[in-house]
Amino acid sequence: MKKTVLKILVLAIAAGSVCPAAMAQEEEVLSVWCWGPDVNFQALGQAARIYGEEHPEFEMETVEVSWDDIRKALDEAAEAGETEGLPDILLMQNYGISQYLTECPELFADLTDSGIQFSDFNQEAAAFSAKQGKNYGVPFDLGGMVACYRTDLLEEMGYTADDFTDITWGQFKRIGERILRENETPLLSWVKGDPGLVLAMLHFGGGSLSDEEGNLSLAENEVLKEAVTTYTDLVKSGVLREIEAWDEYDLYVEELIQGSVLGCVNSSGILASLGQGEEQEGKWSVASLPSLENVESAGNYAGNGGTSWMVINRGDTGEAVDFLADTFGGSQEFYEAVIPAAAVAAAYEPAVQWGVYEEKLAVSSDEEALSKILQYTRLAAVNESGTAYYEGADAVAEAVNDVLAGTEVEAALKNAQAALK
What we know:
It is built from 15 helices and 13 strands.
């Protein structure tokens, strides 16, 4: 399990002093696991600052753990029947919560009586972490996906942001092939073996991994076939360049910053990562996603399901619950700081009324980038994930790799379906 530790110590916060070195001398430290430092670490840092103003002895250790490793840790905890080794709080992909609330709900603290007004959150997002009338998670990021393009470099090549607005993947590929011929620069990159982009195509194509009865359906899934075909055609053409793993996320971002790749399709928080680069101000446009060409129901909007914070049910959970309630649970100061800094559409609905989405993102050439992110996210359909969602997603990843190795799409999906039985 790869972990990068960020220790946040909030002592004498009113005076602005932070003393990480003192961490080793203290015993009670709130531990949090999550991924995505540019979004989630930033949010936790703001939350720690705000919470520390009223709790000057508060200390928190934030550990970077991938979603895959969080899943493995939860699986091991469920099998062992104990929570030893887990943190106080962890971040969950919403599409994965149903499985764990079904198979091992005892791992998670009930937050229903925490004082958090769950009615203030996007109800589709809140439903992911609710079961039998109880709330087990605090929704955070709605997970809206956007397409971002390096406007300044594309303009030098004769393209504008309008050329990438409301287009299909076929049009995207044709533009990318021309750029590749003339400039030898790919238009997109993605991680090899990660089914996320294919699943996004599936979702905005109006499809699902499951049939009407809730059973995984890969082999006879026409929208999935089109999504796999579209993705693998992009890779084979060179328009989309695969990198080896999300462990190379810094490389993924650096290539975008350096202009070695001209665009990306990702959750909106990618803009927070791009904004960390030097001289990126005003260089990135924000657009909706290309749509699938041969699917009548296809749209241009998709999300990855979003995320929620959950508390592990062990010992005294009071501080963990209180921390979430006072920050992610509804602090106006928190959301006004985090939404523009992390470039996210938050699940907390009152934030829309505060005008925070009207602020300009420095990294974007688009004055209304945050407003677009919110709009696109709200237009994205919520996909019914089911308890076997990630089993199906892993099977899709294998099918994509098989197609890129030479297997026909239909045969690869049939093989993937057979492997599920």
